[in-house]
């Protein structure tokens, strides 16, 4: 989370300096600088994700040296999941905090012709971003470990595309639907990257059904018989 905040701070500084050095009366230029700031923010986030991966690799080597069996107690996949989840949580908190502050009032959403679905769509968008950062973390770490540079490029490209789609708001159908399609596809990609398979899903469901039947049988045996 700290690494994500540092990347956002640097992106904000770049955007702030660009705005003050440009013509503030030019609305088209200011909009272009906003798009530029979002792109820089995405690139810096991914750069700091890579820096965090390198830091964890160094820490992993140190943990392996001091452990009894010579292996790190934390796997790379666990670190990737935790890293992505922390990126997602802090990103979601930061993006939704201003929206929650505005929701206190005064006023009613949509009273001036704006969309009345502003808050619900913001909530769904924040949820998608939290999931995406988690999935990106798993894929990114695996790609760095296996030196699959095309995977890194796809992660960065999908992140840029997701951020770019938010500029279509308040046309929420054009932004939210593609973002959730990207989230679903990225989630499946991260699932298989982490070692998942359809066979594992079927085994998990079969085990769950067996456990449910055992619980029901045990509960039936525990019920006292009536006279």
Automatic annotation (TrEMBL):
Entry keywords, A to Z: Membrane, Notch signaling pathway, Signal, Transmembrane, Transmembrane helix
GO CC list: gamma-secretase complex
Family, similarity comment: Belongs to the APH-1 family.
Assembly behavior: Component of the gamma-secretase complex.
Pfam families: Aph-1
Protein role: Potential subunit of the gamma-secretase complex, an endoprotease complex that catalyzes the intramembrane cleavage of integral proteins such as Notch receptors.
Name the record gives this protein: Gamma-secretase subunit APH-1
Locations listed in the record: Membrane
Membrane disposition: Multi-pass membrane protein
Transmembrane segments: 31-48, 79-97, 117-141, 148-168, 174-192
Signal peptide region: 1-22
GO biological process: Notch signaling pathway; protein processing
Superkingdom of the organism of origin: Eukaryota
């Amino acid at each position: 989370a700290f690494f994500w905040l540092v990347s956002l701070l640097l992106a904000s500084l770049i955007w702030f300096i660009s705005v003050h050095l440009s013509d503030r009366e030019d609305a088209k230029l200011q909009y272009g600088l906003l798009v530029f700031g979002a792109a820089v923010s995405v690139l810096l986030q991914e750069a700091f994700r890579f820096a965090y991966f390198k830091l964890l690799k160094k820490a992993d080597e140190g943990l392996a040296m001091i452990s009894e069996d010579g292996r790190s107690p934390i796997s790379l996949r666990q670190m990737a999941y935790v890293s992505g989840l922390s990126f997602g949580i802090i990103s979601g908190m930061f993006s939704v905090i201003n929206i929650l502050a505005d929701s206190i009032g005064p006023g009613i959403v949509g009273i001036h012709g704006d969309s009345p679905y502003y808050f619900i769509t913001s909530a769904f968008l924040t949820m998608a971003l939290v999931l995406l950062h988690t999935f990106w973390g798993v894929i990114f770490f695996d790609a760095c470990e296996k030196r699959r540079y095309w995977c890194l490029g796809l992660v960065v490209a999908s992140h840029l595309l997701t951020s770019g789609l938010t500029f279509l708001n308040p046309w929420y159908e054009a932004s939210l639907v593609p973002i959730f399609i990207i989230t679903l596809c990225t989630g499946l990609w991260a699932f298989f990257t982490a070692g998942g398979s359809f066979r594992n899903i079927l085994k998990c469901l079969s085990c769950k059904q067996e456990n449910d039947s055992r619980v029901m049988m045990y509960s039936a045996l525990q019920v006292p018989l009536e006279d």
